[in-house]
Amino acid sequence: EPEAVEATWNLRPGVGILEVTEAEPKEPLTLYDADGTELITVVADEFGQASFQYIPFEPATAEAGPDQEILWGDGTLLQPGSYELRNDSAEPPISSGEFNVLGLDDVAPDTFYSSQQLDGAQLTVLGDLADGASFEDGYGYIETRDGTLLSTMVRFPDPAIYGDGPYPTVIESSGYGVSNPEAEEPGVRIARTLGYATVSVNLRGSGCSGGVFDVFNAAQQADGYDVVEVVASQPWVLHRSPGTVGLSYSGITQLYTGATQPPSLAAIAPHSVITDPWVQQWPGGIYNGGFTRRWLEERDAQAAPNGQNWAAARVEAGDEICAEHQQLRNLNLDFEAFGRALENRPDSASERDLRELATQIEVPTYLTGGFHDEQTGAQFPDLIEPLSGAQPLRVSMWNGRHPDGYSQENINRLYEFLEFYVAKRVPQMNPIVRIGLVGILAETYGLEDLELEGDRWVEEFGDDYEAALAAYEAEDPIRVTYELGAGGNEDGEAQGTMTRTYNQWPPADAEVLDFHLVADGAMVEDGPGDDGSVSFAQDTDGVGENFLAEESGGLLERLWEFDWQRFDDDNSAVFDTEPLSEDIVLNGPALADLWMGADVADGALQVTMSEIRPDGVEYLLQTGWLRLGHRAATFGDEADPGSLRPERSFSADDFAEMPSDGSLVRVPVSIPSIGAPVRAGSILRMTVSSPGRDRAEWTFEDPAPGDAIYTIGFGEETPSRLRLAVSLAGDDVIEELAPCPALRGQACRPAE
After folding, report:
1. In the chain, what are the helix, strand and coil shares in percent, each to the nearest 5?
2. Which of 71, 411, 716, 742 is the S-S candidate for 60 at Cβ 3.0 to 4.6 Å?
3. Contact 387, 367 (CB under 8 A)
4. What is the mean pLDDT of the chain?
5. Three-state SS for 192?
6. What pLDDT, on a 0 to 100 scale, did the predictor assign at position 71?
7. What is the pLDDT of residues 85-116, one digit of tens each?
8. CB half-sphere exposure, 320, CA atoms < 13 A
């Protein structure tokens, strides 16, 4: 073979990614590993650009850009190590020579971070510019270890209230327009109002940031580390140790950053998060055609060249760095299509599975979420055990909606956490700020008025930080608020009827309560009873339906209007308990441990739990899903409430079609955590159906569209049952029933 000549391409190898520019348009670029094994050929786009981050199991050729054919299926990710890039079609061949793709542990030297300087825009407590200040004072770019520049906006708190610094500092990062100088995200707005300097950073490939966009990939994780270390080196950062804040997208990124263990990171406070991106797109192995699909399509659109209006405006105004970054957006993949192609969970998904990455988080962590989060779902309690290494871990949970981490139920607890671990002082909110914050929150959540919990620590400990911190850390780490929406002055206000604290989840006092399915649609504690079965037909219309009425209003409306539709009798199997003889509290996950058959090889199930109350109201409790082929699961001790969340791989190897002879097999359907009191006289109902109707924002695509008949068996041979984690009721369960509607996030309707 003729000897290769040296390439003139510009290579930017990063963490798990290689970006190439200055190639010839449509030039074929072949990547080889250190052993000379051909991995993949990417044909450069019209600008001579290409990127490599996903590698098929067998060599293949793909076109660069968003229309790139998805060839890797369940292939692998580009791993750290030595590589060579070649154009073997040229005469003579062209070669990059050997280069190294970085890993998460390949951090830059301290001088790289300390050499970067950031300044901030001084704002008043209301968010207006201080006299003589400009938003451009705080806008700039942070350089990451591979040379990518991330657009950044720094804001300083009101000097009239908080002085001239240094300030306790928090970072918020996402792919939204967080670094837009003239649009402040809620997390940093609240923190700045409370006296914190804030740093808002757009993820690579979004807004005005450089690089190629991906969803929670290793490069973004490494960027989180680099951002923390650059911010920590700034002289205006108190203790040279920033924390992080944010809800949803910017809550999730905190967990990925925390897992990289930046040495200067003080604490993280993630709200309303997911656990595993694959599970989020495929809950129970069924494609989420509702919120997750829309969210990914929006990310694809916003990550396109000039896909965010504010970035396009900066380009128009002369931001040359932002303009240069837009051309590389042509390499961003279509991630909705990419995720849709991963019908079975690939092994490589574990590199973004927060249930695994969370075990590496050691900094103080404040995790919050709602059991009825209409966007990110209710899987977040599965992070509690993996986060046991966070020192300390604090968790707040409630029934409720996606934005409730910023409601009055949580805002003071968030402030306490930040004060103890970022500011390192006894929490004492400025009284003027407290009054203003009450007004802002009331207006945001559509309330006439509200009350914030007072400063709990200063009255007892004064300015004795160590003593107050010790008392704070002696509290139970998990706090659950029940019946959020029914404990305030107005229906739907984010206050609960009771609050309990625990050392673990499910709580130590929780026991497993089994209800066995029997004939005539009943569930009994004594069982399993005589053998029998019940069948239902697939509801072909339900997969695209949710329970929100058209007039339900926006995300922050105090009360939602519901159109919670019932399944036709032949499209579901319904099982009811007898009226409960005593109050109970549902405290943890549930499991519909079913024995089932089907006249199709594959299909999808939905199991919905609801409460039928003595006053004639039905309230939704929780919903779970499972694709029948993914029924294989591993269980723990049956007596342990933790066993109600069995482990399953969702892999192609473990996938199994249903028996063609119609025989019944075990189909355990996981139901996410619930926190709800259920009073004496109420009936617990389990409805088994095909997916749809019982969620606010999630709709589904059935893997077996068309007609299907499902059969549930019960009795000694096929002992189907509903398994619940139940705690003692106690005296704090009030007798009064919440109006319909009132409970945040929970659909309600007249009982049948």
Report:
1. 25, 30, 50
2. 71
3. yes
4. 95
5. helix
6. 65
7. 999 999 999 999 999 999 999 999 999 999 99
8. 0
pLDDT for residue 55: 93
CB atoms closer than 10 angstroms to residue 37: 9
Can you tell me the distance from the alpha carbon of 607 to that of 746, in angstroms, rounded to the nearest whole number?
16
How does residue 38 score in pLDDT terms, banded at 50, 70 and 90?
very high
- In this predicted structure, the answer to whether residue 642 has a pLDDT above a threshold of 90 is no
Pairing of strands 169-174, 243-247: parallel
Provide, rounded to the nearest whole percent, the portion of the chain with pLDDT above 70. 99
Q: Where are the beta strands (DSSP E) in 148-293?
A: 149-156, 169-174, 197-202, 243-247, 268-271, 287-288
Structure tokens at 515: 């209800």
* Residue in this structure with the two tokens 């409630």, named with its chain if needed: 398
Alpha-carbon gap, residue 474 to 378, rounded angstroms: 27
**Closest Cα partner for 576 from 627, 618, 628, 543?**
618
Residue of 623, 734, 600, 629 whose CA lies nearest to 678: 734
**What distances in angstroms separate CA 500 from CA 390, 398, 728, one per listed residue?**
22, 11, 12
Residue 74 has pLDDT above 70, yes or no: no
28 in Cβ contact with 59 (< 8 Å): no
> In this structure, are residues 571 and 542 in contact, taking their beta carbons and an 8 Å threshold?
yes
pTM greater than the 0.85 cutoff: yes
pLDDT at residue 727 in the model = 97
Residue 430's CB is within 10 A of a number of other CB atoms, namely 16
DSSP 436-460: HHHHHHHHHTT-S-------SSHHH
pLDDT of residue 178: 97
Helix residue ranges per DSSP H, 154-289: 159-162, 186-193, 218-232, 249-259, 277-281
Mean pLDDT of 688-717: 92
Tell me the H-state helices in 445-589. 458-461, 465-473
Preceding omega of 392 cis (within 30 degrees of 0) = yes
Contacts of 82 (CB under 8 A, 6+ apart): 33, 34, 98, 99, 100
Is 626's pLDDT higher than 80? yes
The answer on pLDDT for 333 being more than 90 is no
pLDDT at 68: 72
Mean pLDDT of 129-136: 95
> Residue 444 — φ and ψ, nearest 5°?
-60, -40
441-464 CB burial, b ≥16 within 10 A, e <16: bbeebebeebebeebbbbeebeee
Q: Which residue, 613, 606, 611, 609, is CA-closest to 622?
A: 609
In the predicted model, is pLDDT for residue 725 greater than 90?
yes
Q: Which helix (H) or strand (E) holds 299?
A: helix 291-302
Amino acid at 446: G
**332: how many CB neighbours lie within 10 A of its CB?**
24
Nearest-angstrom CA–CA distance, 406 and 494 = 10
Q: Is the pLDDT of residue 698 over 80?
A: yes
Please give, one letter per residue, the 3-state secondary structure of 680-714: CCCEEEEEEECCCCCCCCCCEECCCCCCCEEEEEE
End-to-end CA distance of the chain: 79
Q: What span, in angstroms and rounded, lies between the C-alpha atoms of 155 and 561?
A: 38
Least confident of 450-454, 483-487, 563-567, 733-737: 450-454
| Strand 748-750 versus strand 617-627 pairing type | antiparallel
Match 């918020």 to its residue by tokens. Answer: 172
